[in-house]
């Protein structure tokens, strides 16, 4: 059927994906403009890994900062296990400054893309707080974890004992989007929790999952987690 | 979900029963989604002559009997029908019939069946039912679906699965009726001007020759095809004023009762023309002669469209804080969010104010009075959401002081965030906020009950009964 089409069928297919398809070539090589675009996107991805979240955004939402056992970005990349553990002084700091055993704890982390937090936090965070409040949930003291991995949720769970935890974390950047954020959620996080206990809404950015709608939906999921007292694959959604 | 479609037309009435299969996507990583994945006709009635009391009034009693018989035959009870539409077309869509039919529906067709009328919607439903819309998604062409029935031809231009333009012409098989000797028993007054212009006056009581009828049908078909193709910019046969856009369809399909006859052989004699006591076979032949192809579904196109395609499901992340569902016949008030380059809350406020003030003169007594439909929705930041919410609430409460329920519709996936924001700022109103609804071709919306998760069934429709 496509063969009869007046419109270029490749153009139609391209509308379905931002991926680099049908870019053409000259001889055996891609076109210069595509090579340059590829390099630009790659550089943006690298930049977001090595970037830092501006203090201004964190202070806008009163988020104080703690660190993990990671000391540098090289260290972070080589030792994922260290990104899951908080620095020694962080534990005492959280115990002292945070509400203990709240219904919902919100944590923000740069993860693999500081850019993701920079771009999306100002839309997702306030909308998330609104959403949680609309379900009348008690929200703990939110903070920022520098150099965190997803499973740092477990140690935070051990320290603060929240019923549910939401971690907003920068995703591994791709060549399509370097500013994509994920929201991981877990009921009673703690040591020994499995990947299957966690839930995620991924690809949150302007051209992906709409940030404020994602935030609104997180509230619904958390409410369900608290009602059913479970999360991950056990949660009936 | 069982859905029925009933098409009460000028000349014929038909019914279909279909099953809609709804699936919820359980992708772990994205927002939940919900859609109708299969629509299947499970029962199609035979085609009946519309029972009439007199020239214009529908015989509701006979219609009831007919429907009861068909429900029984199909093995469906009223309680099982969860959705569907009755489309009242052509001459039947008169005001004196409207009220009767609406009452009748609630009692005899099932609670969630909606009444619709209006030539635009008819064209859209016919294009959906005939297969024209589906074909437009498969090939990159603009397809015109011409649904020729007894009284009117409803045209819808389709591209990439969407209807981009609709209009209606007074072209139909029963506009001229005659007995088998060619004695004319009826000529629609809509044809008078057209016939005079074509030097072919034909009046009731006269005897028509085969050649005369053939030439009239040819002219009617040509007029239609030329107007649809856009090579003619005006026509005396237009039902309502219409400015033909510059869109030129690549393919023309014909459906409807006349469409069904396009594959027959050419009528050669008056007797062959008048098998149904009208000019349908001859009109069909002339469409065929002009190279218009037959649509995949013809006589039942509109009823299939009404039964299977009229019901949609909303997005899955929606906000419903109200026990009022189901709600019927809520007028849609369309307000563009962002017409300018940049988002300007003041300009949006002006538009909301203007639209709602106008609507408040018409619908202030109902609750919810209107459904505010937000079109031209750009990317929405948290700041913008707050401004949007403030404007909507301020203007809504100013225009509808008595209202206790606010309904907001949008195309983009934003309803839950918007609903939560509205509820946060207004503690007194019931809020219903739905997304992923295409309201381009409707004036009213019916909201059903949840069908899967939070998603509810909706029907967007028109209700233009002529006087």
UniProtKB/TrEMBL annotation, chain A:
Pathway: Amine and polyamine degradation; ethanolamine degradation. It catalyses: ethanolamine = acetaldehyde + NH4(+). GO terms for biological process: amino acid metabolic process; ethanolamine catabolic process. Binds between the large and small subunits. Gene3D superfamilies: Ethanolamine ammonia-lyase light chain (EutC), Ethanolamine ammonia-lyase light chain (EutC), N-terminal domain. Its main location: other. It is found in: Bacterial microcompartment. Adenosylcob(III)alamin binds at residues 150, 171. One of its GO terms (cellular component) is ethanolamine ammonia-lyase complex. Its cofactor is adenosylcob(III)alamin. Keywords: Bacterial microcompartment, Cobalamin, Cobalt, Lyase. One of its GO terms (molecular function) is ethanolamine ammonia-lyase activity. It comes from the Bacteria. Its EC number is 4.3.1.7. Signal peptide: none annotated. Coiled coil: none annotated. The basic unit is a heterodimer which dimerizes to form tetramers. The heterotetramers trimerize; 6 large subunits form a core ring with 6 small subunits projecting outwards. Belongs to the EutC family. PANTHER family: ETHANOLAMINE AMMONIA-LYASE LIGHT CHAIN, ETHANOLAMINE AMMONIA-LYASE SMALL SUBUNIT. NCBIfam families: PRK05465.1. Catalyzes the deamination of various vicinal amino-alcohols to oxo compounds. Allows this organism to utilize ethanolamine as the sole source of nitrogen and carbon in the presence of external vitamin B12. This is Ethanolamine ammonia-lyase small subunit.
């Amino acid at each position: 059927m496509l063969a009869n089409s007046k419109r270029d069928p490749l153009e139609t297919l391209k509308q379905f994906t931002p991926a680099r398809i049908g870019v053409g070539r000259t001889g055996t090589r891609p076109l210069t403009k595509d090579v340059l675009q590829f390099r630009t996107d790659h550089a943006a991805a690298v930049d977001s890994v090595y970037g830092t979240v501006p203090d201004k955004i964190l202070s806008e939402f009163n988020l104080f900062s703690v660190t993990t056992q990671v000391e540098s970005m090289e260290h972070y990349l080589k030792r994922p296990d260290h990104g899951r553990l908080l620095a020694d002084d962080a534990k005492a700091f959280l115990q002292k400054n945070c509400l203990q055993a709240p219904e919902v704890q919100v944590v923000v982390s740069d993860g693999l893309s500081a850019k993701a937090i920079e771009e999306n936090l100002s839309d997702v965070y306030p909308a998330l707080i609104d959403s949680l409040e609309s379900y009348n949930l008690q929200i703990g003291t939110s903070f920022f974890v520098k150099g965190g991995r997803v499973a740092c949720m477990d140690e935070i769970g051990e320290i603060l004992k929240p019923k549910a935890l939401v971690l907003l974390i920068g995703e591994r950047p791709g060549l399509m989007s370097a500013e994509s954020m994920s929201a991981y959620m877990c009921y009673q996080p703690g040591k020994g929790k499995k990947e299957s206990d966690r839930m995620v809404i991924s690809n949150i950015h302007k051209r992906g999952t709409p940030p404020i709608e994602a935030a609104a939906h997180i509230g619904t999921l958390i409410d369900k987690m608290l009602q059913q007292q479970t999360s991950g694959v056990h949660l009936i959604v | 979900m069982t859905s029925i479609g009933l098409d009460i037309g000028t000349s014929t009435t038909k019914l279909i029963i279909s099953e809609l299969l709804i699936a919820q996507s359980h992708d772990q990583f994205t927002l939940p989604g919900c859609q109708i994945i299969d629509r299947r006709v499970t029962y199609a009635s035979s085609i009946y002559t519309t029972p009439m009391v007199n020239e214009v009034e529908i015989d509701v009693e006979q219609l009831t009997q007919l429907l009861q018989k068909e429900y029984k035959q199909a093995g469906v009870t009223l309680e099982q029908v969860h959705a569907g539409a009755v489309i009242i077309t052509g001459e039947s869509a008169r005001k004196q019939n409207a009220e009767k039919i609406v009452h009748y529906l609630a009692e005899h067709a099932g609670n969630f069946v909606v009444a619709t009328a209006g030539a635009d919607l008819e064209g859209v439903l016919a294009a959906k039912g005939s297969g024209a819309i589906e074909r437009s998604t498969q090939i990159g062409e603009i397809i015109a679906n011409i649904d020729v029935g007894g009284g009117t031809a409803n045209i819808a231009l389709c591209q990439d699965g969407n209807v981009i333009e609709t209009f209606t012409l007074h072209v139909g098989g029963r506009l001229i009726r005659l007995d088998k000797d060619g004695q004319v028993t009826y000529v629609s007054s809509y044809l008078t001007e057209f016939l005079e212009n074509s030097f072919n006056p034909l009046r009731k009581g006269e005897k028509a020759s085969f050649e005369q009828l053939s030439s009239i049908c040819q002219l009617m078909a040509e007029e239609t095809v030329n107007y649809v193709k856009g090579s003619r910019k005006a026509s005396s046969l237009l039902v309502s004023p219409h400015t033909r856009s510059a869109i030129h369809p690549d393919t023309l399909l014909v459906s409807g009762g006349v469409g069904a006859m396009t594959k027959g052989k050419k009528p050669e004699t008056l007797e062959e023309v008048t098998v149904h006591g009208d000019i349908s076979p001859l009109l069909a032949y002339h469409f065929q002669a002009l190279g218009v192809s037959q649509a995949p579904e013809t006589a039942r196109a509109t009823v299939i469209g009404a039964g299977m395609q009229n019901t949609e499901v909303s997005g899955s992340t929606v906000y419903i804080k109200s026990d009022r569902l189901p709600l019927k016949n809520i007028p849609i008030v369309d307000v563009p969010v962002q017409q300018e380059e940049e988002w300007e809350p003041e300009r949006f406020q002006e538009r909301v104010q203007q639209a709602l003030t106008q609507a408040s003169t018409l619908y202030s007594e109902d609750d919810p009075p209107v459904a505010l439909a937000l079109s031209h929705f750009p990317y929405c930041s948290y700041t913008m959401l707050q401004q949007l919410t403030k404007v909507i609430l301020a203007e809504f409460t100013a225009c509808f002081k008595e209202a206790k329920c606010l309904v907001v519709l949008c195309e983009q996936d934003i309803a839950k965030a918007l609903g939560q924001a509205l509820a946060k700022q207004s503690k007194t109103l019931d809020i219903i906020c739905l997304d992923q609804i295409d309201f381009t071709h409707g004036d009213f919306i019916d909201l059903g009950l949840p069908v899967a998760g939070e998603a509810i069934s909706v029907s967007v429709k028109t209700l233009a009964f002529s006087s």
